[in-house]
From TrEMBL:
Keywords noted in UniProt: ATP-binding, Cytoplasm, Glutamine amidotransferase, Hydrolase, Ligase, Nucleotide-binding, Purine biosynthesis
InterPro entries according to UniProt: Class_I_gatase-like (IPR029062), PRibForGlyAmidine_synth_PurQ (IPR010075)
Function noted in UniProt: Part of the phosphoribosylformylglycinamidine synthase complex involved in the purines biosynthetic pathway. Catalyzes the ATP-dependent conversion of formylglycinamide ribonucleotide (FGAR) and glutamine to yield formylglycinamidine ribonucleotide (FGAM) and glutamate. The FGAM synthase complex is composed of three subunits. PurQ produces an ammonia molecule by converting glutamine to glutamate. PurL transfers the ammonia molecule to FGAR to form FGAM in an ATP-dependent manner.
Assembly: Part of the FGAM synthase complex composed of 1 PurL, 1 PurQ and 2 PurS subunits.
Cell division as UniProt keyword: no
Phylogenetic placement of the source organism: Bacteria, Pseudomonadati, Pseudomonadota, Alphaproteobacteria, Hyphomicrobiales
Gene: purQ
Protein name in UniProt: Phosphoribosylformylglycinamidine synthase subunit PurQ
Reaction it catalyzes: L-glutamine + H2O = L-glutamate + NH4(+); N(2)-formyl-N(1)-(5-phospho-beta-D-ribosyl)glycinamide + L-glutamine + ATP + H2O = 2-formamido-N(1)-(5-O-phospho-beta-D-ribosyl)acetamidine + L-glutamate + ADP + phosphate + H(+)
């Protein structure tokens, strides 16, 4: 399956994401610059992490208004899978492609460490390689990862199975409501998450717990 990685000024995890997608799929993803208005035919579009536009205004607020985002929305409307990691998650929220918002961490400090995640919904195009309730490891590195949604929205996403990952075993690093670490849209083809699965896919990383997400999204067998 073909993939694409979106590049914006200030993103610094694009090379990590490109390496992960290449190693797992066997094919290098195409890269798409922020000013482009079209994306080649691919099966998965990824917006990686970093600090797009220096996180000015709000994290992801400027990036969400770049020309490429309309092309991403058009692809998502046609069923193409979209994954946003960390700043990519913030961008998807600012673009209105996912419900809720991300606020400053409850500690008001940048956190960079490993956490544990519960796979809440294993019946998605991103989590088929995992089992429901499985606990996996993943690194995090963010300052504004405190997920919030109003009570009505929160009840809807919980009831609809849109919560995909939850911080587990007391490792919530940011104060996110209901320990939410990753959510998807109602259609199930757009996923945003704060943790960085691309940084735990091989022995050199100290484990491969993140590999299953990309194997699922790319339609390859996790190894």
């Amino acid at each position: 399956m073909k993939s694409a990685v979106v590049q914006l000024p200030g993103l610094n995890r694009d090379r990590d994401m490109i390496a992960a997608l290449t190693k797992i799929s066997g094919h290098a993803p195409v890269t798409v610059w922020q000013t482009e208005t079209d994306i080649p035919d691919v099966d998965l579009i990824v917006i990686p992490g970093g600090f797009s536009y220096g996180d000015y205004l709000r994290c992801g607020a400027i990036a969400a208004r770049m020309p490429i985002m309309q092309a991403i929305k058009d692809k998502a409307d046609k069923g193409v899978k979209v994954l946003g990691v960390c700043n990519g998650f913030q961008i998807l929220l600012e673009a209105g492609m996912l419900p809720g918002a991300l606020m400053r961490n409850a500690s008001l400090k940048f956190v960079c460490r490993e956490v544990k995640l519960e796979v809440v919904n294993a019946d998605t195009e991103f989590t088929g390689a995992y089992a429901k309730g499985q606990i996996i490891r993943s690194p995090v590195a963010h300052h504004d990862g405190n997920y919030f949604a109003d009570p009505e929205t929160l009840a809807a996403i919980e009831g609809n199975g849109q919560v995909v990952f939850r911080y587990a075993e007391g490792t919530n690093p940011n104060g996110s409501v209901n320990d939410i670490a990753g959510v998807m849209n109602a259609k199930g083809n757009v996923l945003g998450m704060m943790p960085h699965p691309e940084n735990l896919i091989e022995a050199a990383h100290g484990g491969n717990d993140g590999r299953g997400l990309f194997a699922s999204a790319l339609g390859v067998i996790a190894a």
